[in-house]
């Protein structure tokens, strides 16, 4: 949805309250005014859609162990983290960025492990490459990028949308959470079996196959 600049005459008192509310909501004046006007005329903006999807994702993740949802400061970005059972309890950070436009490509997932430990970096890179290889053996081959301690994946629908239209937003939110949970479960299984590399690989493969069999929507 294209945005343009408009001049509005507003009282200073109203603007002061708007700025205060925008700060509390982690947004800016223009976005908050746009949201208020859209709600007043019953128009649903992309920002509203993304916030509702994030609310649904947060509710689903509240039922899962091991995740901590971070404070949201953007309408399009959702952050959470999960601890690994390894020396010093390193944390893997996940960020989901949704696309404003609806389509087959829903958004992007970034999984990042920030560490200077060369051994830990080696292990996490091994996992990222293993997971990427499994992704390309499944239905379609996901777009992804791997760099030092970072895995980036395009969250694109591998299944065709229903005949009546696109998947519902609740279904897409569930699909994103299902994928993150499978990724995180596989990562933890990999690290749990570091002393037995063959078993570590087989456990990751098992988790991915379970994801393919059980996910309602594949990403």
Give the structure's gist in a few sentences.
With 219 residues, this protein is an alpha+beta fold.
List the helices and strands and how they pair.
Elements: H1 12-25, H2 29-40, H3 46-61, E1 67-69, E2 77-83, E3 91-98, E4 105-113, H4 118-137, E5 144-147, E6 150-156, H5 169-192, H6 197-214
Antiparallel strand pairs: 1-2, 2-3, 3-4, 4-6, 5-6
Helix pairs in contact: 1-2, 3-5, 4-5, 4-6, 5-6
Note down, in words, how this protein is organized.
The chain has 219 residues and is α+β, with helices and mostly antiparallel strands. It has six helices and six strands. It has helices spanning 12-25, 29-40, 46-61, 118-137, 169-192, 197-214; strands at 67-69, 77-83, 91-98, 105-113, 144-147, 150-156. Strands 1-2-3-4-6-5 form a six-stranded antiparallel beta sheet, covered by helices on one side. Strand 5 (144-147) and strand 6 (150-156) form a beta hairpin. Helix 1 crosses helix 2. The chain is elongated, with a radius of gyration of 20 Å. The two termini are 25 Å apart. 21% of the residues are buried. The mean pLDDT is 87.
């Amino acid at each position: 949805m294209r945005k343009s600049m408009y001049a509005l005459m507003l009282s200073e008192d109203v603007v002061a309250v708007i700025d205060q509310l925008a700060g509390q909501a982690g947004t800016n004046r223009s976005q908050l005014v746009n949201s208020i006007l859209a709600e007043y005329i019953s128009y649903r903006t992309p920002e509203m859609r993304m916030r509702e999807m994030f609310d649904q994702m947060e509710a689903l993740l509240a039922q899962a162990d091991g995740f901590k949802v971070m404070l949201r400061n953007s309408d399009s970005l959702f952050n959470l983290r999960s601890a690994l059972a390894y020396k010093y309890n390193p944390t893997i950070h996940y960020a989901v960025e949704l696309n404003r436009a609806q389509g087959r490509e829903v958004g992007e997932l970034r999984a990042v492990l920030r560490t200077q430990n060369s051994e830990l970096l080696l292990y996490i890179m091994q996992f990222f490459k293993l997971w990427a290889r499994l992704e390309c053996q499944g239905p379609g081959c996901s777009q992804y990028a791997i760099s030092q301690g970072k895995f980036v994946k395009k969250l694109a629908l591998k299944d065709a949308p229903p005949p009546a239209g696109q998947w519902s937003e609740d279904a897409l939110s569930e699909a994103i959470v299902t994928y993150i949970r499978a990724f995180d479960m596989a990562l933890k299984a990999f690290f749990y079996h570091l002393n037995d590399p063959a078993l570590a690989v087989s456990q990751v493969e098992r988790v991915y196959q379970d994801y393919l069999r059980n996910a309602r929507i594949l990403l």
